[in-house]
Amino acid sequence: MEELNRNENVEKAILVGIISTPEDEESMEELKELALTAGAEVIGVMTQKRNTIDKAHYIGKGKLKELKFFVENQGADLVIFNDELTGVQLKNIEEVLKVKVIDRTNLILDIFAKRARSREGILQVELAQLRYRLPRLVGLGEQLSRLGGGIGTRGPGETKLETDRRHIKNRIKAIEKKLEEIKKHRNLQRERRRKNQIPVVAIVGYTNAGKSTLLNALTNAEVYVEDKLFATLDPTARRFILPSGREVILVDTVGFIRKLPHDLVEAFKSTLEEVKYADLLLHVIDVTLADMEEKIKVVEKVLLDLGVMGTPIINVFNKIDLLDVVPKGNERNIYISAKNKIGLDKLLEVIEEEIFKDAEIVNFLLPYDKTKEYNYLKEKTKVVEEKFSEKGIIIKAEVQKEIKERLKDFVIA
Ligand SMILES: Nc1nc2c(ncn2[C@@H]2O[C@H](COP(=O)(O)OP(=O)(O)OP(=O)(O)O)[C@@H](O)[C@H]2O)c(=O)[nH]1
Ligand SMILES: [Mg+2]
């Protein structure tokens, strides 16, 4: 057990975790950051070395007694567990400790709830919270809260638990419907961009890596930057003109974290579709962290969960101003400082190379009856010039290899 400094007026929290791998230690450090971000004061940390989670109490029963003593002795208001707890575990632990008990998921959801600004973000967080709550509405007070069952009630024998459950389910349905509408709008926007042939570059990465700082450095977007977790929730898209004059859309996204709650990923799927449909991903990595490799893996795993496959990725190692020696890097691994605007030229160069790597200027002659091909070219390529001749339309366009191949019958010198 480890005692830390304390301060009045804020909720005093004790963190509890199970340690079975070195990564769990990092994860506990992160839990501390999360607790601070949520506004709690961490007055103690308690860990137990074991390989499995106890089904009933998460930690062993003896350890739980020790924890109870610690909680009472230190006057803790709140105990935070480093893994998602089941309804049964929550109930059992609360019964013993008699203070508020929350888990890592709930803590992250709480931070998200505090940070959400856009209508979509707020709805998504609420959805995640309800989905988290639904299977945890266990037991407590179930017997006592049986409704009267007379006129005007929802039927004899229905318990408070069932009413709550139904209420939550209805609310979930209502939110899903609203989100579906927002999603339609988003799809339209994406469709428009695609038609205009504007490539999308999405900035992804672990929370606090410097994604928003990078977007700001490139576009003067003034996106909120903070040395806390999950500063950004809503994807911010900005038009950006590359040095060659070609336009791309840069999208800043919500940061990832270890044990990112599944419900949250689900709820944020539609905003994260920006990532799924991007033409290129910039994976921003905080190069100063000891557990950098682990964090890279976490991000790659979340990307996989989102169904991102085959999208080119450039690793952008950030915060090199804090390094003594800066590695050289290559086309896939760029070293920058977003804050000090170091290395951005090189980054833009590789972005440009990657996105337009196989585009070339091609002339097509399309007979006037080839409207399908005409529309295809207009939608998929950047048409530079159109001329009307006797034989048809002469189109000069910047096209990718596959498109040229597909329309090879119409290519002219
Ligand atoms: N020293 C240094 N700090 C940086 C650099 N880039 C970003 N930071 C700092 O890192 C912290 C996080 O930056 P953000 O841009 O908010 O990070 P983010 O990845 O958008 O974080 P979330 O939105 O919370 O996921 C801030 O305190 C930044 O000032 C850099 O190049 N060098
Ligand atoms: Mg951010």
Automatic annotation (TrEMBL):
Gene Ontology cellular component terms for the protein in this record: cytoplasm
UniProt keyword terms in alphabetical order: Coiled coil, Cytoplasm, GTP-binding, Magnesium, Metal-binding, Nucleotide-binding
InterPro entries listed in its UniProt record: G_HFLX_dom, GTP-bd, GTP-bd_M, GTPase_HflX, GTPase_HflX_N, GTPase_HflX_N_sf, P-loop_NTPase, Small_GTP-bd
Subcellular location: Cytoplasm
Coiled-coil intervals: 158-192
UniProt KW Magnesium keyword: yes
Cofactor(s) needed by this chain: Mg(2+)
Keyword Coiled coil annotated: yes
Pfam family, one: GTP-bdg_N
Residues where Mg(2+) binds: 212, 232
Residue numbers binding GTP: 205-212, 230-234, 252-255, 318-321, 337-339
GO MF entries: GTP binding; GTPase activity; metal ion binding; ribosome binding
Residues in Hflx-type G domain copies: 199-359
PANTHER family cross-referenced by the UniProt entry: GTP-BINDING PROTEIN 6-RELATED (PTHR10229:SF0), GTP-BINDING PROTEIN HFLX (PTHR10229)
Family per similarity comment: Belongs to the TRAFAC class OBG-HflX-like GTPase superfamily. HflX GTPase family.
Physiological role: GTPase that associates with the 50S ribosomal subunit and may have a role during protein synthesis or ribosome biogenesis.
Quaternary structure annotation from Swiss-Prot or TrEMBL: Monomer. Associates with the 50S ribosomal subunit.
Protein name per its UniProtKB record: GTPase HflX
Source organism: Thermoanaerobacter kivui
Gene: hflX
